[in-house]
User: What shape does this take?
Amino acid sequence: MNTPLSTSPGSSDMRPLTGHKFFLLFLFLLVILVFYPYMQHGGFGYFAFRVFGSVGILVAVYAIRLRRTLLLVALLLAVPAVLERILLREPDAGFLSVLSIALSFVFDVFIVVVIFRRIFSNDQPNSETIFGALCIYLLIGYAFAGLYGMVVAIQPQAFYLDPRTNLHAIPNRFDFIYYSFATMVSLGAGGITAVSAPARSLTVIEAIIGVLYLAVLIARLMGAYRSPSVSGRP
Assistant: This one.
């Protein structure tokens, strides 16, 4: 009688974690979005939270499972993204600040494109497909928030904060995150308005991407779930 192959306890314990990489990345992105407003006032908690956000970058690289060449590219792009999230408290007009934000945006786009190809090439969607699609949506919001910060670093008056609804006059990182996601869902960010041409242009582009992405995602998932029943008909 053949005995089943035994597996080590360590590998069996790690299988639930390694099998849900997009879910893990989604949790990181969601935790950052939920707790960011309470950690943006400085101190050790703020720095620890920024380090935690940088870990999310490494989780993103881990989740997409790249070949060696693409993995090297991802790690090279991840370095300025990590430094931008740890060292750069607020964007400024300096060359290094703008360059760091731009490279961080390139890294976000790279991760989004890889995840997009991965989940849309899967004929049979599963839970990881759904969480991968949600990761793309959150990553797009964070990426545009970084772009808005870069615009303000170059044009300090690119956004107007209504003093009746804001306790500060200069927009901070969370203002851009709030504005970005409110734009993506076509909700409208009350209290903050894009006034410069580049800021308005980015706002329109993000709103279009948000609407089109949801439409493409819904159509793709409906087609994938309906295809087995259609192919099984005589």
In short: Residues 1-17, 229-234 have pLDDT under 50 and may be disordered.
